[in-house]
Prior knowledge:
alpha/beta; Oligo-1,6-glucosidase, domain 2; 3 domains
Amino acid sequence: MIVDEREHGQILESIHLPTLLASSDVDTETSLRWWHKAVLYEVFLRSFADANDDGEGDIAGLVSRLPYIKDLGVDAVWISPWYVSPMRDGGYDVKNFLDVDPLFGTLEDVQNLIDASHELGLRVVLDLVSNHCSSQHPWFQSALASPEGSKEREWFYFKDGRGEGGNEPPNDWKSIFGGPAWTRTQNPDGTPGQWYFNLFDSSQPDLNWKNEEVLKHFDEILRFWFDRGVDGFRLDAVSAIGKDDDYRDMGFAPDDLYRPDIWGPVPFFDADGVHDVLRRWRRVAREYPTEKFLVGEVVVRDVDRLARYLRRDELQSTLSFDLCKIVWDANAFRQMINTLQSACFERRSWMTWTLSSHDEKRTVSRYSQDGPAEGVLADVTQTGRERARSGYLLALTLPGSACIFQGEELGLWEVTDIPEDKLQDPIYFRTGKQELGRDGCRVPLPWEKEGTSLGFSSSHEAWLPQPRGWADVSVATQLDDTSSTLRFFRSVLALRSTIFNDDEWAFTWDPSPTGVLVLRRGPDFRCVVNFSGEPFQIGPDEEALVSSSPLTHELVIDVNNAAWLRARRSATN
C-alpha cells in the first residue's frame, strides 16, 4: 500500500502535482488520448468463456462474448496472458512470448479477436509479463545446461550458495508468494549447482534486465503484438524488474513474505534501472501512427517513487490497486485517493482506478466485513453488496481511467470453499497451505441460469467449481432484473461517458459531515458516498442521476450507499 511519508498520515486537502521532478520532466503536450478517461474490462481468459467445451476459457469464447462487453459500456479489454505456458501460475509463467498456448487457441484466433474488438470500437490491452519467464523457457533451459559464468546464465540471476557445499541460499531474500526467493539447480552430472533468484514461484526465474539480449528480445515482443493490432500493454509487476547489484541480507524472518508495498527499500525491487527500461518501451510505443498505451502494475511504498513511473517518457498510467487494500472508511479512501492522484502530472499521466483484479479478493466479500481488507472473509452480506456498488460509483467518478474485473459487474463473491485438489495458485503451496491464494476470485463466470457450468462451457464442468448460488447472479438472470448489479453497471457506465468533460483533470472535496465523502467535478456534479452511521440529506437544488441502491425517498442517501448528483436545471439558470 502506498504510504505518503511526507504527509505523516494527515489527510491531504488539495490535489497537487509532484514537486520531486525537475520542470524539464513536465510535458507541455496537451492532446488527449483514448485512455485518458477509458474504462478497461479485465478478462481472465481461462475463466471467461469456453468455446470448445473443455472446461477452460479460450480466445474464441471471448470473441463470442464481445457484444456483452461492448453492451456493458467499457472502452477496452485488458486480457490476461495467452502466451505458451505450463500454467504453473495461471499463464504468468511464460514459455514462449511470441505464440499462443493451444489451451487458448492460435495466432489466427488472436487476429480474429483483435479485428472483432476494433469493429465494435473496443481497444485491446494485453498483459506483458516482464519480470520473469517460465523455468521451461528455452533461455532458462539453455542457462541450466551451460557452465557457471556463461553468457546464458547472465540472462538470469545465478549465484553460489553459502555454507558448506553451498547448501544455503545466497542470502535471506523472500518470495512474494512465500518461502525463499532462491531455488537450487542441479548440474548436468547430477551434482548440486548454483541457485537462481525467483521473486515469485520457483517456476518463474527472474530475468536480468541489465542484459542487452533480454532488452532486445522484449523490444521484439512488444513490436510482435503491436504489429498485430494490440493497442497497449498492462505491464505485470513492472516495478520488480528494477534490481541493484547488492546481495546483502535484508533481515527477513524465516516465515516472512516479501511485501513491496510495506517493506522498506530493497535491492531487488523498484531500483532505478527500471526507468531506463520503461523509457525504451515508451520509444517503441511511439513508433506507431497511433501511440500505444502502457499502463503499469506499480507497487511501491511511497508516492514519490510512484511518480517516477509517470514521467513524460515512461508510463501513461498506473493501476491503483491500493484502493483494494484499505478498509471501508471515509478517511482511508479520501487520503488514498489524494495520495495517488498527487503522483500524476496534469493532462499527461493518469491513474487507472480499480477496486478489483485477478489478484484481489472480490469486492463484495471484502466489503462484507469491517475488519482489515486482507483479513479472513466473512459471509457475503447486503451491506457488502451496497458498499461495492458505492465504491465503484466513487472510483468511476475520479479523473483518469478505471478498470473493472470480470464478474464485478455481476456482484460475484470470493469463493472460499474450493476443494483442495482443485486449488492451483502457487501461493497456497508455497505458504504451506496457510494462504488460499487467488483461485477464489478466478472461478469461471456464470452466463446462464442452469447447466453443468452455468453456460461457461456447453456441457463440461469448469476448471474451478462454481458455487450453486451463482445461478441467481448469472448474466441471464440479471439481464431480466432492472434492479440487478449488471443493470446498475450498465447505467453508470452509460452516464460516465457523457457527464465528464474531457479536459477536467482536477477535483475537489466539498465540506461534509464526518464519515461522508462529497467529491465534486465541475460546477454541477457531485458524487456522495455515505460511510457514516446516519442518512445523508441531499439538497433541494440537486437531483440524483444514479444511486447504488434505491434512495429511501427522493432526498436521502442511506448508510453504505452513494449517488451521483447534478444541480437541477432550474437552479443553474
